[in-house]
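User: Hi! I'm working on a homework problem where we have to compare a predicted structure to a textbook description. Could you give me the structure for the chain below?
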Amino acid sequence: MPPIAARRPTRRTCHGVTLVDEYAWLRDPAYPEVRAPEILAHLEAENAYFAAMLKPHRPLVSRLLAELRGRLKPDDEGVPYREGDFVYQWRFAAGDEYRRWFRRPATDGDWTCFLDEPALAADGDYFRLGGFAVSRDGRFCAYAVDRDGSERFTIEIRDLESGDLLPERIPGTIGAPLWAGDGDTLLYRPVNDQWRPYAVRAHRLGTAVARDVTLYEESDSGFFVHLDETQSRQFIIIASADHETSEIRLLPAADPRAGARLVAPRQRGHEYEIDHAAGRFFIRSNRDDPDFAVFTAPEEDASIAQWRTWIAGAPGLYVRDIIAFRDFLAVAERHGGLDRVRIRHHDGTEHLVEFAESVYSVAFGTNREYATDSLRLAYESMVTPPSVYDYDVRQRRLERRKLQVIPSGHDPALYESERLDVPGRDGTRIPVSIVWRREEGGKGPRPLHLYGYGAYGLGIAPGFSTNRLSLLDRGFVSAIAHVRGGDELGRTWYEAGKGPRRWNSFHDFIDVAQHLVASGRTRAGDIVIAGGSAGGTLMGVAANERPDLWRAVIAHVPFVDVLNTMLDQSLPLTPIEWPEWGNPITDADAFRLILGYSPYENVRRQAYPAMFVTAGLHDPRVTYWEPAKWVAKLRATKTDSNPILLRINMEAGHGGKSGRFRALMETAEEYAFILSLFSHRPPARS
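Assistant: Happy to help. Predicted structure tokens:
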């Protein structure tokens, strides 16, 4: 029997509405520490129930785990890249969970390991590298580690000449350290109790961390501080931003204490980023077009009054990212919802990079050189495994440097992918990426795995998944619903699904499922839906609104207690989330809107599909009690006998287990749960 959480009603009144929460006690008052015995006992009981329910399916879990592991190369390595006087590369030794990082002199020489993740991870159940940076002279490596999933990284510094670890350690950071250009100054961002990176500090080697100088501090609790450098490495970039507004300051990299200069003061709704090359700045901004344009400004004055259009906005064009090299600007963009890369030389001539497939995903890879004619790209599609390409800008030629090897074998010709445009209830056409195994009897009807996210302007790329093959080879169709709230069709697509227009995301997802049923691709009740984090909101609403469509709901660290979280500005992330979801504290309309869809508030007495839910005890993004409360309320309210499983990672956070193989066990358990609900599915083909 599943654990039954005690019901202890707490009440509060907001905007004239009394809210009753029977499971608020599951939040430990000591959070981010969780030490209340009653709460820990309940979470452990959930895990015990999860284990008991999966026990009959352990043979299937083992088979799936073997399949998943068989698609990963036991020993693997990245394509080398140059930075400064060295060439760098990561490697996996056979069977290792984590990478080792190597380098050699750019002129030639032996490879040496300078960062050993397996050694750093040896003493714990969880490990995550939060980025590293090597000083400009190549002597020191600063790296950030998280050992419990809380995403509060400790920075350590190693002398690469002696191999010694320096005595200074910097705890409580967001990770991603950055060296200034003066040789001995390390820049980093501390996080506060609400897990907000709120400042940039400078640490000088050999001095006490307590004496570190604050270069910038953000007073607005709704803004995160970001830290970067221009591709030319002449300037340090300090950006403050929420989900719709940004503000940038520049520091000379050679003298980071010289004082920052403001580029453009924050103006609500104005987002911009900046890079530098060839004596001028390049700015990607939505000042004149919601889907962004590119401007230039002189090196001596980057203020907004000096901006001049370099790439104008155009209908159907979405400018996503830029990198400014010495001789050209690389632009990652989408046109008509499809990825492409533009090369624009500083004299104004330009061309597009050509790819063979019609539907694919491409993004910038690791590009650490400034004076280069080569652009590194990461490429994949729903049938083509990830590849690393180097593009010769002068010769206009792509060279594939790596194609992901699948040791157990993969024949792309066995699979077919398609891009659909599905009509929504308001006439909007919703993009859908879909893939299936060709020999499975045409296009359906078959079981469907449908994924969705739809928030923060984070589009879901139609990429490859080795794990997904375990479903495709058992006759499933897999699809991604590119609902409003992502940026698949540009920033306006995002705006159409955020804040007061949030219901568009939910309706789009349900409409896609209904279309796939009506078109014969699948059947109602044969659909498994999946989403995580903010995509968990989508899962919760879909479960409440149309439970009849779904065989199962997979909700990873789901953001389902939206109203209570947005009403509590002491929680991690809440103030910065208000532009995305609305502020129900001050805005009665936002309160009523969120109250109308928040999955936790809208659990009702009806039959629900089976559910597989995950949480992380140390998760700073979606706190553990959100899925725990949701599951407790569902069990107490629903009218069916379908199982609801909750797996809580007691040593991890938002991303689940760490390690490339250990994380596969979680996927194997999830797939076993799905397949147990479709017991007639045939075994995987070899």
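For your comparison, note the following. The chain has twelve helices and 39 strands. Residues 441 and 475 are 9 Å apart (CA to CA). Good luck with the assignment!
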